[in-house]
Amino acid sequence: DAGVIQSPRHEVTEMGQEVTLRCKPISGHNSLFWYRQTMMRGLELLIYFNNNVPIDDSGMPEDRFSAKMPNASFSTLKIQPSEPRDSAVYFCASSRVSSEAFFGQGTRLTVV
Amino acid sequence: EDQVTQSPEALRLQEGESSSLNCSYTVSGLRGLFWYRQDPGKGPEFLFTLYSAGEEKEKERLKATLTKKESFLHITAPKPEDSATYLCAVYSGGGADGLTFGKGTHLIIQP
């Protein structure tokens, strides 16, 4: 298996623009997570899906953030409008329920 | 709210110099404690899961142990390739399946 695949690896955008991050989880995994990593706050859970259904989005910082999982093999995290403080590395991870999570390589987002 | 504190924040060792990393946690009911390794520019890589106090797991030069309040990652005779950030995370369930991570220990092994 190729592991969790995220795209793009790097994204530079201007403040106010819409940003969409993409994730393909490992086949057979039914849980998917979006995390954000910064130097100040470390890894923070943004949202968690189980069987394509959002279970816990309490970590989503603002209404500017939204996530979807239209099917078992694809998820998106959208930021609209983007702000400089959204600059971070965003990770997608997948797992079988209550098992260890496997992470993608991340998307480094820079909002200028 | 689950909390995870890792210490030290950074550690520099000579090759072959053994040491331990600490992970202290506060959770309502621990269902699993996870150790990950993260290299620069990459996602965290899974190392171990520990489920109950007294449990130990080993992989090459690494051994993870668990008590009711903390976990240790022991590194024996480390090599430069062990240099990385080591992350600890806890899972307590309670309706949310996500992990709560500590901020990590940045480990540098000098040849």
What is this structure's SSE topology?
The complex is a heterodimer of chains A (about 110) and B (about 110).
Chain A: E1 5-7, E2 10-13, E3 19-24, E4 31-38, E5 42-50, E6 53-56, E7 65-71, E8 74-79, E9 88-95, E10 102-103, E11 107-111
Chain B: E1 3-7, E2 10-14, E3 19-26, E4 32-38, E5 45-50, E6 56-59, E7 62-66, E8 70-75, E9 84-91, E10 100-101, E11 105-110
Parallel strand pairs in B: 2-11
Antiparallel strand pairs in B: 1-3, 3-8, 4-5, 4-9, 6-7, 7-8, 9-10, 9-11
What does this 3D model show about the protein?
The complex is a heterodimer of chains A (112) and B (111). With 112 residues, chain A is mostly beta strands. Helix content of chain A is 0%, strand content 55%. Chain A is built from no helices and eleven strands. In chain A, strands 2, 4, 5, 6, 9, 10 and 11 form a seven-stranded mixed β-sheet that branches. Chain B has 111 residues and is mostly beta strands. Chain B is 0% helix and 56% strand. Chain B contains no helices and eleven strands. Chain B starts with a strand and ends with a strand. The mean pLDDT of chain B is 93. At the A-B interface, strand 4, strand 5, strand 9 and strand 10 of A face strand 4, strand 5, strand 9 and strand 10 of B.
In short:
The complex is a heterodimer of chains A (112) and B (111). Chain A has 112 residues and is an all-beta fold.
- What is the end-to-end distance of chain A? 36 Å
SSE-based structural type of chain B = mainly beta
Strand runs of chain A, count: 11
H/E topology pattern of chain A: EEEEEEEEEEE
Mean pLDDT of chain B: 93
* SS content category of chain A: mainly beta
Q: Identify the overall geometry of chain A.
A: globular
Choose one word for the global shape of chain B. Answer: globular
Radius of gyration of chain B: 14 Å
Query: What's the story with the biggest beta sheet of chain A?
Result: 7 strands, mixed
- Proportion of residues in extended strands of chain A: over 45%
Give the fraction of residues assigned to helices of chain A.
Answer: under 10%
Q: Oligomeric status of the shown chains?
A: heterodimer
**Helicity range of the residues of chain B?**
under 10%
Low-confidence stretches of chain A: none
Query: What is the element string of chain B, with H for helices and E for strands?
Result: EEEEEEEEEEE
Which protein chains make the most extensive interface, counting residues with beta carbons within 8 Å of the other chain's beta carbons? Answer: A-B, 27 and 25 residues
Q: Between the first and last Cα atoms of chain B, what is the distance in angstroms? A: 41 Å
